Hints:
By secondary structure, chain A is α/β, with parallel strands linked by helices. Chain A has helices at 9-16, 30-33, 39-51, 68-76, 79-83, 94-101, 146-149, 177-188, 218-225, 230-233; strands at 3-6, 21-27, 55-62, 87-91, 108-110, 112-116.
Amino acid sequence: xxxxxxxxxxxxxxxxxxxxxxxxxxxxxxxxxxxxxxxxxxxxxxxxxxxxxxxxxxxxxxxxxxxxxxxxxxxxxxxxxxxxxxxxxxxxxxxxxxxxxxxxxxxxxxxxxxxxxxxxxxxxxxxxxxxxxxxxxxxxxxxxxxxxxxxxxxxxxxxxxxxxxxxxxxxxxxxxxxxxxxxxxxxxxxxxxxxxxxxxxxxxxxxxxxxxxxxxxxxxxxxxxxxxxxxxxx
Amino acid sequence: xxxxxxxxxxxxxxxxxxxxxxxxxxxxxxxxxxxxxxxxxxxxxxxxxxxxxxxxxxxxxxxxxxxxxxxxxxxxxxxxxxxxxxxxxxxxxxxxxxxxxxxxxxxxxxxxxxxxxxxxxxxxxxxxxxxxxxxxxxxxxxxxxxxxxxxxxxxxxxxxxxxxxxxxxxxxxxxxxxxxxxxxxxxxxxxxxxxxxxxxxxxxxxxxxxxxxxxxxxxxxxxxxxxxxxxxxxxxxxxxxxxxxxxxxxxxxxxxxxxxxxxxxxxxxxxxxxxxxxxxxxxxxxxxxxxx
Lengths: 234, 292
């Protein structure tokens, strides 16, 4: 189970800037287990956002955003509310946010930070990659993660090494992450996002606290310790 | 006060040169090459572990150039040092009287001769420029007050012949917002393409020194076309450098470099001459550059 932590409403609004109408998309998978996108928590977040002037055009919970067919089919039923919004607030791990971004013609904003992949080493089903950096910044990069798609993990645009074919200087088999981001921002009409000052990486967040060092056997740990953050109870 | 800054401020067409530190401690030849540039250029760039090939520290070489009363431009890449070390080295440079800094992201580790090394990239060219501005304003980037602040004249790089050009212009604007006061460009062999770029970049009102890389032979031109991003040597030039005998190549190389600089001179504020080992030819190039 991938572990996430909640972004504060203030931070979400900062990433949204002038976008005041949001469609809220919630992943009912891992975040439910991590209790970061449960109905109570999500409810509080929506209230906080609304108090700060955000208009929520609609809401949808889908079991697993990383399941493309499921996501596409469910979102399709809410197209009108979805496109009444300026941006989609996605409560999911980095992969879920990226998967959503690749399927809708709107900018996204992550509502959670991914802190730990929880020991999952299964084969990744799609193009998106998340390295659980603990501070999701993809609201300003067209929903594409610069830390995983750029070989250098740059945050302010492509280096001088992008080849004439749009590939990375490290390997011809890898596209330049920032070229992908630029092309996507152009499609969304948001090239000006490239001028924004991105926060520096916070490497303290790449290491997660002990109470989050759970495994996929969290249900057993609940049994043994009485609550999901078992280590902390000790 | 930085000579480079003074020269650019005066509106004079400003030239800069470059030396590459050796892989080892035998720096005599390199210092001789620097000596060839005395009086011919406003400042001399010293590359920083260029192409990720380990070399002697460029900060040390900059200090050596200062001892010789030559003005260096400290190139600084983000590949090898984290934000602590970069700030420490910037303060160290200031303490040694070095003012000119060129902020670069840096080629990836895998391109060099220690490919298993850890690539750092804690900062990039933009955040490094911001760090330089922040230190100059008296604080480190974590917000702590400095005990004595440095003065810098910071610059950055742009690739005028990249296609598409928009991302280059956007990043150029971002670098200026972060504190870049001058630009040295990647090598340009196509004045028409450069003119197109400068028409768009003029509005930033920041001096641009066009990159002039001495063409040594046809093989080098072909290699750059195939492997160096954003550098295009037109067929006509490949033919021209290939048309002369080995013994005449240096003369032809100087001729081509001066001709290109002269053609692009009205479009920009200076030229950055990259001799790649042929430092002794730079005075000849300079001689052939039209007077203002």
